[in-house]
């Protein structure tokens, strides 16, 4: 069945139709300067296709939340959820076929990128049984797939760019049809833009953007200046879902509207200068100190109550102990706190920032405030703990060599490598996919297998399977090898390796 949705009218007055099934297979790129009508075009497309296909919108400005009232989209305020929570929300939305709007309004650029990447990751990593057709609309795509590094951290940029690349390059086989809109093609990563086969180009003024738009539409360079003459809501269309030749299209009206309409001129209020002076230059209101948000509101109260019931809380000593015995005792107490946190059922799937907050609170209650490590050191401790290594083993020369090899990998993979190294050194069975996924902080067994493949490609390990399907992992150069292990075993059977 062919589903054609009407986007508006051509320059000749004929209906401008978009083949929805072809769009699902070929993706769409929308480009136009601010005020050219991109958001209006996306809204028209979403409204017309809502009865036919599941949708999700990555909305950095909160422009599309009004779709929820009219078409039943679930609006998710990203500010109220963690990255892990958004990844789970993406997976569940895909499984239950619920159209969603991810509202990123109110977050800074880095947190917008991180949360959008987490949500897109959930859509992408869902099991094959749930690869239903889905439109994924990303407004202001240059924010999530920038062509060059900006003021955000490299980690956030890599996460976001990787998620956008997966959407546009690998999403088709998973039923995900990427629709990306950008103000400037020059600011959008080329490997993301190049995967679209359908184009709607709106009003553009900069020469570099006009030249790229003309190239994408197969127009001559001398024709590029025509983009300056386009009116608001007018676009040049090309692609298998739109037209085989460049075609002028005027986008039709929409049933919903954004919360913030187009600014309109209004007369200034009449007020005397003295009244205005009194209002504008009045004394500022007193400052209010906002309480700090905690990931678990009652955590401190619960821990304090438990501690008080066991013994009287004594004040912390002013001077830190200097003897080797005291320092060793403090390290052991800090390790016990970390082990207690990791013993919680969901500890493997919580973000490091939340784990660190709980770790600091527990250390203070134990009277270890002066021994609390900083966040980078906590990350290293967490890596060793997830590999089952205590402070005594981590200080061994052999394990120092393993740590150096692990440092060749991204930080979030180092714990998995060290867990495998420990299993190989002790001759234990190879950790299962579930145990590896838990140590990595994921529920996805597919991701665990890809992780092993990546580590093997770096030349650090060699994976082998015997005739019964059991897996053996050998560490290159160290010649340590695990015993054969069932990759499909449950994580609980190998929990001691992951902790």
UniProtKB/TrEMBL annotation:
<dbReference type="InterPro" id="IPR008571">
    <property type="entry name" value="HerA-like"/>
</dbReference>
<dbReference type="InterPro" id="IPR003593">
    <property type="entry name" value="AAA+_ATPase"/>
</dbReference>
<dbReference type="InterPro" id="IPR014588">
    <property type="entry name" value="ATPase_Atu1862_pred"/>
</dbReference>
<dbReference type="InterPro" id="IPR027417">
    <property type="entry name" value="P-loop_NTPase"/>
</dbReference>
<feature type="domain" description="AAA+ ATPase">
    <location>
        <begin position="24"/>
        <end position="342"/>
    </location>
</feature>
<feature type="region of interest" description="Disordered">
    <location>
        <begin position="246"/>
        <end position="265"/>
    </location>
</feature>
<protein>
    <recommendedName>
        <fullName>AAA+ ATPase domain-containing protein</fullName>
    </recommendedName>
</protein>
<dbReference type="InterPro" id="IPR002789">
    <property type="entry name" value="HerA_central"/>
</dbReference>
<dbReference type="Pfam" id="PF01935">
    <property type="entry name" value="DUF87"/>
</dbReference>
